[in-house]
Amino acid sequence: MTAEATRYVSWKDARPAVEGHEVEIVNALGIPWRAGQREHIRCPYPGHGGADDWRLTNKGRAICTCTGRQTDSVFDIAMKVEGLDEEQAKIRCVEIVGRTDLIRERSGEGQFQATDADSLLKARPERRDDTLPAAYLAHRLGIDADAVLMPATRAVGLKALAYFDPPKGKGTGKPIHVGDFPCAVFEQTDAQGRRHAHRIYVAPGGAGKADLGQAGNGTVRDRKKSAKRVGEESTAGRSVIWGDASRAPWGIVAEGIETAAAVAHAFQQEIQDGAAYVVAGINAVGVEAFEPWPETKRVTVAADRDEAVKISRPNPTRRGEGAARKFGIRNRERVAVAYALAGAPGTTTDWLDIHTTHGTAAVRAGILAAEAYTATDDELRTEAARICDQDELSRIASEYPLPHLEGLTLAYQRTKAGKVWVHQAVKVGDNVEMVPIASPFGVLARLRFADDDDAYGLRLVVQDMGGRRRGIDVDRAGFARQGAVDTRAMLLGAGLRAESDGEHVAVKCLKAADPTAEIAVVRRPGWHQGEAGTDPFFVCPDGQIVGASGDQVPELSVNARISAAVARGGSLQAWQAAVAAACSAPRCEHWIIGAIAGFCAPILSLCGLDTCGINLSGMTSGGKTTAQRLAVSAWSRAALDQRESLLQSARATANGVELMAARSNGTVLAMDELGHVNGKELGRIIYSLASGVGKTRMGADAQLRTSYTWSTFVVFSAEKSLEEKVRGDGGEWAGGMAVRVPDIDISGINRAVAQDVLDSIATVDRNYGHAGPAFVEALVAAGLHRQAQEIRRGIDKTARSIAGVEADGKHVRAAMPFAILDTAGRLAQRLRILPAEVDVARAVRWAWGRFGDSSDAVALDPEQLATINLRAWIAERWGSSIHPTVPDDDGRRSMRDALGWYDEDAVYIPTQRLVEAAGGALKEIEIGRALAAQGFIAKKHDASCLYVSYIPKIGRVKAYALSRKAFGRSDEDGLRFGVYAGGRA
After folding, report:
1. CA 536 to centroid of chain Cα atoms
2. Residue 459: enclosing H or E segment and its boundaries?
3. Is this prediction's pTM over 0.85?
4. H helices within 669-815, ranges in order?
5. 676-694 per-position pLDDT tens digit
6. Residue 913: CB atoms within 10 Å
7. What is the pLDDT of residue 897?
């Protein structure tokens, strides 16, 4: 029985169709909204109906108190108002705007399958049989499916995929449906990370190639097809990969997926050891076009031998050897190239044939005996001509697509030096000449910043000064600021070269650019809220997305991504071994704290807690920076000389700290050696980091710029405690600083750790960037990202437990960073990221004890702190600017620079000086009450007024009369200076 046809509209068609028709659509849905209306109306959503809550923004998106911080598209509105599902909502909206031509039909349940690479590789589960690729390769290699080494790139199987013959005649008709057959789909990629896919129609169960019969011209139908290409960009050179091509030094290139699978089977030990990777060029052109990864040092082409003479082809093509030599001539200056031809001379043989007839050892021996490539004079001349060929211009135009401009003609042409540049048509007299203005640049897509009120930007590509393709993301709003100076700076920084006003012409192009492709992006890593009703998802610093769902998963802006070399290295297992060594070192609890700190920010941010952290203080060479390296290595390489690393020197401006904090959102921010920072500035930095938002700044257009925001866990290191640093530089130490970044004094730790342990710990410099993403992946897999409130309640409970039963609110708040450490450490152990032998509870208790014993903790009792500060202030000024109320022995009364006075009973501090004298810890009235409660007020005006209005023998001065016994010196304190008779004995 044939299933009913289902109607659908693709998102690619639906979104542009409704753009600009939002008011028309909401009116048709029964919502009374006028174009340009600003006032709110009653919410039309069933189950809410809040008065004056709902409005449509000028971008055509609805906002209401019931949507939280999210906005609704017209599709969301239709779903909520009329109770439709997603597909029905798309159909309803396009019908309202009269675009019924966009509605398509799927002929039968589950039969429709798009054939672009992304759709094939993400086919619905019910359509897939992912055993097919392995089964097919096993059949071709003659081995068990379990023995097949599968590619590192994705491979999926489809139970049935339609096969079409081309249209008859001149190709203007519809493709002819031949039938549906099982299909293995192999993902392709290249060194730039661009993707494509290749289809192989296979027999049932993967037992060889499918029997597709003969085409109308009598030839056997081709069982292999490329995925449908999206856009005009060439896919040549994108290949199926076995192993880690981004790191392995040796690449082996073969023609065809099956042949490459045989080669990979022969060299699987080298692949698993990271010493080699295998590349499947789909055909000879793919071999020629393959570009090695930057880390590749040598390439061996495992070439097909095409030397057999046929009646229809008396002259052998030698296509495989030709492809190998073309690869050699094109890449000889980048890598060492060798090639090995399969089989004996005069035959047509590939390395799959060698595997089948002679076995794995013969494949290894033949490829290892490859001949080094040496270019001939003819090849050198041919290559020079090829560089000048028009194909190169077409490739550049495809990779760097120029936007269309109505009033400006731009095109890629060669300069006199042979370089491909953008040329502008300029009228010279009666002629039009093409003048070079800039190196290649292009616009790939428009960006929608999902975490910035859906502001628009552009994804650009620039050919850098090394000839590489470099992507950058720019804000469209930046075009209007100061002549787009920021945009021009980004273009030039990415490697754009320009003549005359070429960079200004580039900006003109960007202003007019209107690409059809749209990419949702976020500006910073960390947790982000998905579409309405979906779970939060996490963006790793290198751009990896964890836990996202929906049609359009946002990307991390390329400007915010950490490069691959800094983001990942080594393995999680090796990192865990290094952490286990650090945490097992006796009396090195601060290293345990450091290892745990790398997992705190995902928990802190998920629960909506304020940014906080710790400061590790103590003498140099105590392992403070090592603790920071352990924390940072969970997310990136911990290297102070790497600008992208999450470990940075504290030698930075306030603006620099804001940028570092935003880049560390949801991960960790480690700032080494606070000695570089002035104490007064440090106090401001602590409050700024804890606030989670940067300074509000005004642009040249008198508009407020978007501030940086963050939610992270901070790990400082310094030789002094924060209190000592702030006070030592003339700043005011306050309890708010102590509770946000408590100090952990590492005095007494083990400074004689065995060298073999230190060597083990040092391996985090080679094994990094795995633990943090793995922790978040495990968190999401366990569903804990949906339990933020439960986790927060657990943190609050732990904080109260750490602080003690009798603790007040300030101590509980100070315990929050320690509670976060405890919770993150236990979760990391539960999720098997942090080694089980790490004693998290002991390390947290030790850290809390060290904080409680530090001078920083005094700030948690502001009354005590104010009293201590007041005593110190009076003692420092006694006899210099705090004078007696009676004249000196010579009859003079000093009044110059007087900050206070004393008599036999009291020390008088003017009311306007009290806050300063108490260190700014409390307000004046609070200080007065604290002094009175301790019995330190010697005199007062009356019962309700804690100060006096008159100082004896001085005059009418409002001052606090403090007990001299408690704050002053007695006449007998110390010895007075005198002159004594004496001489040499």
Report:
1. 15
2. strand 455-463
3. no
4. 679-691, 722-728, 735-740, 755-761, 771-781, 788-803, 809-814
5. 888 888 888 888 888 888 7
6. 16
7. 78
